[in-house]
Amino acid sequence: MKNNIVPELLKIISIFMAFPLLAFAQYPDAVQVLIDDGLNVEAGFDAPGGLKGYVGRKDGHAVTLYLMADGEHVVVGKMVDDFGQDLSAEHIRAWLPETDLTRAWQQLENATWIAEGPEDAKRIVYAFTDPNCGYCIELRRKASAYLNTGIQLRHIMVGVIYPSSFAKAASVIGADNPVKYLAFLEAQPPNSWREPPGKISDELKDKIDANNELMKALAVSATPSVFYRNAEGEVKKIVGLPDDTALSNAVFRPPS
User: Fold this and answer.
1) Range of the domain at 68
2) Inter-CA distances, 175 with 157, 182, 204, 226, Å
3) What is the pTM of this model?
4) What is the pLDDT of residues 224-240, one digit of tens each?
5) Of 229, 230, 212, nearest to 220 (Cα)?
6) Residue 242 within a domain
7) Residue 134: inside a domain, yes or no?
8) SS3 239
C-alpha cells in the first residue's frame, strides 16, 4: 500500500505544476512574441477570413494584428476589404477601450506650455505643438479667431518631427516672449526648419523631454493634437489637425 502512495503523490504534484503553464498560455506563440516586445493586447475577436484578430497598444499607439489560420503566423497592420474599406479602424473602434483620460487634464496642466489668449480665460484648450509642424501653424491660424471669446490655447512644446525640433521647442519655452518667438520660427523657410538654434540649457532640455514623454503616455502620435473638455466636462482628444466643424463645435466651442 505504501509503495503506491509515492507514485500517486508525484502524479498530483505533476498536474499542479503543469496547470499554471496552461493557465498562462493565453496567446499563441506568434502573438506572445509581440507581447514580450512591449505590445499590450487588450481584446481578441473573430476577424474576417476566418482569422483571429487582436487589438492593443504599444507605446500608447493602437495596434491591430491578425493570427493566420495555421496559428503560427501573425500579420500586424491594416486590414481592408475588396471595397478598400479600412476594417482595422472599425476593429479598433469596436474592440479597443478608449484611453482613460481622467488624469490627463492634471498632467497637461503640470506640463511646460506657452499660452495664447486671455489670462482669465473661461475655457482652456491644450495642443501638442512642434515648431517644425506645418499643421501646427494652421491650427494657430484657425485658433486666432476664437481666442478673443474667452478661450486660451496652451501649446505643450515638443520636439518630434526633425532633429532640430527638440532644440527649437526648448528655445521657444526659454524665450522672453515665447509666442512671438514661436511665430518667428514658424515664419522661416522650410529648409531652415532643419537648423537648430544655439546651445540649450539642461533645464530646458529636461522640460522638453518631459513633454515628449507625456505625448507618448497620452497616446499622441502626431502634431498638432488637441485636448479639450466637452459640454459634460469630459476630457476629449483629437489626434492631428481637427477639421473646421470639430474646431467650432467642440474644441473651441463658446465658454458656457
Assistant:
1) 2-95
2) 13, 9, 11, 23
3) 0.70
4) 999 999 999 999 998 88
5) 212
6) yes
7) yes
8) strand
